[in-house]
Structures are given as C-alpha cells and as structure tokens.
Amino acid sequence: MMEGAQMMIVDYHPTTYGSVQSYAHYLNLPTLVPGGTGSSAYDPYKYDISLLPPTIGAIVAVIKHFQWNNVVYYIFDTNDGLLRLQSLYQSFVPGDFNPVIRARRISNISHCYDVLRKIDRSPPPKRIILDLSTKEAYESVLHQIVDVGMNRDGYHYILGGLGITELDLSTFVFGGVNITGFSIVDNETAENVKLLDDARGYELHPVGDSVEDAMVIDTVHVLLLAAKQLNDDRYNINDDIYSSRRRDRYSRYGNTNPNAQSYNCSGVSLEQSFDGDMILQALKRVTTYGLTGNIEFDKNGVRQNYIFKVYQLEHKVPLRQVGFWTPKLGFNTTLPKPEVKEIQKDDLNRTLRVTTIEEEPFVQKKKGTDVSGAPLVDGKYLEGFCIDLAAELQKASSRHFDYYIDLVGDKNYGSRKEDYGCWDGMIGELISSRGCPNGTRKKADIAIAPLTINEERQRAVDFTKPFMKTGISIMIKKPDKEKPGVFSFMYPLSNSVWLCVMVAFVAVSLVLFFVGRWSPYEWGDLDPKGGLPINNFNLLNTFWFSLGALMQQGSDTFPRSYSGRIVGSAWWFFTLILISSYTANLAAFLTIERLTPPISGADDLVKKGSDMGYGTLNSGSSKTFFETSNVPTYMKMWNYMEANFDQVMTTDVKKGVEKVRNSKGKYAFLLESAYNVYHNQRKPCNTMKVGHNLDSKGYGVATPQHFHLKNQLNLAVLKLRETGQLMKLEQKWWYSKGMCGTNKQDATTSALTLSNVSGIFHILVGGLLLSMIVALCEYVIHQRIRKLRERGRMKKVDFSFD
User: Is 297 helix (H, G, I), strand (E, B) or coil?
Assistant: First the structure.
C-alpha cells in the first residue's frame, strides 16, 4: 500500500490469512483470494473476496440424497474445518433430518492411522466426510485409508474439496467402497481450452487442469476486468472534495503523482484507503465465465450462480460424473435414491408379493392342469421346490405373514445394466428404479427363486443364508455304453503288466534251468545206457514248471536243490498275488458295461478346441463368472464363448439341454449343478454331469434392504436346514420324481453273457486246433524218420518220450 497498491491477490494459508484479512478490512484494501474456506454471507470481513465457493451446501445435499441418518464421521485438519463443521451442524433442521456427526481432527496428516483404526472398529455402515486443506493432504490420508483396509464394502466417503478429478483413486475401484466428490473446473469449452493452452505458454509456472491453477487464472481475470471498469469510470469522477482529499494525501508524503498513491501502513496511526469501497464495488460488479464456470458475486461479495460437477466412484465402476449441484437447483443426479423407510403397521398386516421365475423343478405349471388363460398371480396353478419352500418359510417364521406368488414380468433373474446402475428381473422388482429411464417403484417384497447370491446383487438387496448349494458344472451327452470285447478278460491288467508277466515267466524259467545245471543236487542217478548222471530239469521242463505254477497247476518235475526251491517259492508267491488280484478285478470288467466320457473336466474342454463346442446362458451369474474370472482356463473358455457367442450361448436352460441332446456328443453345456442333476433325471436320460463344479455358490431368498422380515426369513431358512426339511424337498423334486432311476448294475453282479466270456472260448478252440496241428506234425515227422531207419540211411536213434 505504501507503494501505491489499491487491491491485492493473496495466496491463502490457514496460519497467516487471518492477519491479512484483518489488515485488509481495517485499511479498506480489497483482497482477492483464489482459495480459502469459501466466502460466506455472514463473514464480518467484507473487504476480502474468495473465488472458491463453499462446498457445505453440496455436502449436505449428498448426505440427504443417500439418507445418511445415522452416524457420520467428519475428518478435518485445520481450524477452517471447525468453521465448516459449524455450518454443517446448522444445515440440518432438527426433527427433519438430523444425522449424528462425530468430528475427528487430524493433527499429523502423514500419520493418522490411530484415528482411522478407531473409525474402522465402529459398527457399519461407515459414512465419512474428508474435509482437508490441500491436495497433498487428501493423497496422504487416502493412502493411509488403503493401508488400514478401509477401502472395502460398507464404506462411503465424501471429499469436501473441489479437486476429486485430480486424485488417483485407482486403488479404490475394486475394493467395494463408494467415493463421492466435486469439481468446479470447466476444461471442455473451446474458450477455456484455448485459455489453458495460452497459459501453458508461460514458463513462470506450469499450468495444469487443477482447481488451484484454475482459481488463480480466474482471480487474475476478475482483477483485470475490475481494473478496466475503474479506468473507464475514472473520467467521470469530478467530486471536488474527493479530489482535494486525494491531493492533500499525496502532498503529505511528498508524492505529487495522483496515479501513484501511498498509505501509512505502519506505526500507531494507520491510514485507510479512500478508494477501497469504490474498488470493492467494482469487483462485485464483475460478471464473466472462466475456468471455474460462471463468475459473479452478490452484494456481500459471495460468489453465486456457480455449478459443482458431482462425481461418483463405485465397485468396479471408475470415477464418473453422476450429476451436478447448484445453490438454487440443488442436487440433480442419475443415481437412484435409496429407500429407507420405517416399519409401518400397514406393512405388518398387508399381504406380501413373492416374485419368482418359472424354471423346473423350482417353479413349474402343475402337470395335467389346463392353465391356458388362467391367472397365475396367486400360485394356484404352480408347483415346485420354491412353491413348497415359500409355504415352509411361512410356517417356520416367528412372525406370521400372508403372501401371494407372482411370476417376474421380464422372465429374468436380475442383472445390473451399465446405464445408471439399473436392474432388471427379480432384483429390479425388489428395489426402486426411480433414477432409471422409465423407472417405477418396487413391485415385490420377497424373491423366492433359484437366485444366485453374488457380490453385485448383495449390494442392491439383502439375501438370507443359502437354502441350496450349487455351482457351475458341465453337462454332456452320455456316450454309448462300451460292451466288453472278445479279449475283455485281459482288461483287469494293463498291457504293460501283461508284458512284465511274460518277461518274468521267461526269466524265471531260465534261472531255474541254469540253477539246475549248476547245482549238483539236481543231478540224479546214472543213465543206465550211457553211464552219465541224469538231470530232469532241462529247458523244456523248466518252462513247463513255470507255466504250471502260473496257471495254479502242478507239474511232474520239481526242483531238488535249495536254490531251485527258493526260486520256485518266490515264483509261487508272485503268481498267488497276481492271480488273486486278477480274479478280484475280473468280475467288474466282465459284468459292468462301462461309460467312457470324452472329457473329465474344464481343462479337457479347452484341449478339445474346436472338436467339442461349449457355452452357457447368455446372461446371468454363469456368464458373469467366466467374463470376470482371472483363472487362465476359464479365461480361455470365455474367449472361445465370446468369439462364438451366437453359436454356443443359449437364452435359457432348456434350450441348452436340448442342444446337448441333439449335438451327437459335440457340445457341452455349462450350467448350475442343480439344473444339471435335474435334467439328467429327465427322459430320454441321455445326458450326464462330468467333473467337479467349477465354483461354489448358493441360492438365497432375496428381500429389499432393511426389509422388516429379513431376520425372520433368515432364521426360518436355518431352521429348515437343521431339521432336514430342505433335504426332503430336494429329494422330492430331484430324485423321487426322476424318470431315469439309478444304475443298479453298479451295485449288483449280473449273469455273464456269451459276449463277456467269448474270448476264453476262442483261446480254448485255438488251443485244441493247435494241439491237433502239432500232433499231425509229430505223426508226419515220426513216419518220415521210421521210413529212413528202415532204409538204413541213418543210424538207429531212440525217439522214446518220457
């Protein structure tokens, strides 16, 4: 001021700004502040103008939209947070909407783990407002929130600043947390894009798209517009008293230039600016559009007619704009407003609507009943597992309720649409869809159906404990039964075992022969004709001995030596175990017709490639499982199904089952095991389940959130499970009403047919023919030798046989 300044731009800092504000107010010096706590109409200091609008109004609007009527934690780090906390308290009218606000001040931004852990140990749900002074403070606290694990389901944060788009929130996308925040920067209009490009051309300060940069640029813009207006109006100032007072002040300090004013700003007496009020009014009259949108002020210097963009981050949904907020229009958003209503007497007495879906054997039209044109809303013509389950829940519930059953209108289970987070199917009928296009209020109170419990649905509705366990399984067409072949008696031992037995037979025979030759105890009496010792264990006799032992028969020749008997004993023990094992396993192979499926699990499906197609339903939890899985095998399966979507995907379970039955073994259907087991028991009984379930999940009864019968239904499900009633219902609809029965051949032994034992007859006939051929050959050779002996062409040879 001593150098002639008539207005200032002051960078806000919470520890020094109070002094600057006091001096500016006393000296009548208009001060522009790019940041700060946000101006207020009740601020006693009227000479400072902040271009940063207050965010408390927007925060209150978001709290009311999400119905935070319980405990809300308010975390702040400066004294300015106390001022905003006071405004937050004053924003709620007692008796109308009055949440419990618990304030927590952070003294050390870089280490606030203790404060966060105390909040984490509090009961859910956790609603938290973060009102911090700088971008660095937000980044530090958010990083510590991730470290503590407060980025999971059940947490909802509101960021009180205006720079949510500047923060890196990628670590929160998959945690399950919700984050709502605001932005005031408009970097999309052509004028602002050009302005940012021009600003980046200066090397004094790197300009980005941050709120801080935008506020500084707009502040300078407002100052220049006010200065231009003052220069235009300066020629109309002809007040003599005013001009004389200015000249006296200039001369007092030895300054004769009226354009270079100076003031006494130190010492005991402080001199006020006579131009301050005029400059302040010029600043308030500025109206323009800048990087932070529309800029104009009311008579108190409070910024008005501005717009906050509202952003939201949800589970698996990155940060996106979901609406806007203005002081006049309030909060306008595409997010559906949650319904939280208290239990009324009418709710306790009225008849509840139960929604379900027609899917055998859970819900189906009664057999033998003509239901054409008949209303189904009362469930009179419906039967199935879920119809019986609804009746059992009514009996087991501690609080009586009346109900009627209605089929879901769009015949869908319930999936979340990408636009606006709307739901279809039974989930959509349980919740309000007022925020969706053509949305309506909820139609149903309870959903009793084969509704899979998953994370996404659990966020929209409440589920009871599962009433049935299930999982994705593989259905294929039953292969033709493989009947035993001619040589089926060889099946109990593998080819490698048969080969080893033959090698052992030859090896034992040779060892016996050499042992008989080396051991002196194998040589008997002298040969009367030649005078030499006789050894009956020649090569032919050893093979005959080994064969007799292998066939569990005896032989005329036995080893005499200890070494030979040791070899014989070992061979006998070997043949005892071998024949016993063979006999025990032979019955199963001769009496059971085997089913050899072409695959045994998901890995085999992937290996089959194009030889065997596979698919699942084109919507629902099964499709979502493959689409979002990180398991390499399931990722390959989804890539195949996505590439052949129209050929392998089906609209419902029945079409998938028919596709399997008509595929001649070239198609596998991936469906939940409950349906797999049921349809395998339906005629023509030509499908089967292979392998284990690919995942594990359950079916649950769904209700709207905060439904007054939720706990009673949950306890009723547990009671039915413990008493075995759920098992009885499953037995009734899956097995007792089955059409295929069970394969009793697996448990009992049936009579052998000729096809089972034809191989041994072939060997017998072959042995007989071979013996006749060998006998003929022996006869021919013997006759030939006899003729030769008679002619005297060879010496007499004794051909006697022992």
Answer: strand
| CA pseudo-torsion sign 62, 63, 66, 72 | positive
- Phi/psi class of residue 685: alpha, beta or left (left: φ > 0; alpha: ψ in -120 to 50)? left
Chain centroid, CA 532 distance in Å: 90
- Closest CA relative to residue 33, chosen from 201, 189, 216: 216
Measured in whole angstroms, the distance separating CA 686 from the mean position of its chain's CA atoms is 34
Structure tokens at 261: 């004013």
**Residue 768 banded pLDDT, cuts 50, 70, 90:** low
Neighbours of 394 (CB within 10 A): 16
Secondary structure class of 256 (helix, strand, coil):
coil
Q: What percent of the chain has pLDDT over 90?
A: 18
The pair of three-digit structure tokens given for residue 658, joined into one six-digit string: 């028919």
SS3 content of the chain, % helix, strand, coil (to 5): 40, 15, 40
* Paired sense of beta strands 48-50 and 31-33, if any: parallel
The 10 Å Cβ neighbour count of residue 366 is 13
pLDDT digits (tens, 9 = 90+) for 93-121: 765 667 888 999 998 888 899 999 989 88
In contact, 283 and 10? CB cutoff 8 Å: no
Q: Measured between alpha carbons, how far is 146 from 698 in angstroms, rounded to an integer?
A: 31
For residue 477, the number of C-alpha atoms closer than 13 Å in the C-beta half-sphere is: 17
Local structure of 373: helix, strand or coil:
coil
Question: Which residues are CB-neighbours of 562 under 8 A, at least 6 positions away?
Answer: 519, 521
> Distance between CA atoms of 387 and 120, rounded to whole angstroms?
42
Q: How far is CA 543 from the centre of its chain?
A: 68
Question: How many residues make up the chain in this entry?
Answer: 802
Measured between alpha carbons, how far is 404 from 464 in angstroms, rounded to an integer? 20
Identity of residue 222: V
Distance between CA atoms of residues 358 and 448, nearest Å: 11
Residue from 154, 178, 174, 318 nearest 630 by CA: 174
Of 164, 163, 168, 141, the closest CA to residue 213 belongs to: 163
Nearest Cα to 448, choosing from 375, 390, 518, 365? 390
Nearest Cα to Cα of residue 530 among 336, 331, 798, 309: 798
- Distance of alpha carbon 81 from alpha carbon 141, whole angstroms: 16
CA distance 746 to 320: 60
Residue 723, C-beta contacts closer than 8 angstroms, at least 6 positions apart: none
List the helix and strand counts (H, then E) for the chain.
25, 26
Q: What is the mean pLDDT of residues 410-428?
A: 76
Whole-number Å distance between alpha carbons of 43 and 18: 12
CA distance 702 to 448: 7
Closest listed residue to residue 450, CA positions, set 387, 371, 366, 381: 387
d(CA 353, CA 801): 100
Is 679's pLDDT higher than 50?
A: yes
- Cβ 505 vs Cβ 575: under 8 Å: no
CA atoms within a 13 Å half-sphere pointing along the CA-CB vector of 751: 2
Residue 801 one-letter amino acid: F
- State which amino acid sits at residue 490: M
Does the pLDDT of residue 389 top 70, yes or no? yes
Cα dihedral sign for 741, 358, 650, 623? negative
- CA distance between the termini of the chain: 142
Answer for the pair 703, 709: CB distance below 8 angstroms, yes or no.
yes
List, in order of start, the domains of the chain with CATH numbers: 8-53+188-295 (3.40.50.2300), 56-183+307-333 (3.40.50.2300), 345-471 (3.40.190.10), 488-591 (1.10.287), 597-695 (3.40.190.10), 757-802 (no CATH)
Which of 185, 178, 177, 143 has its CA nearest to residue 161?
185
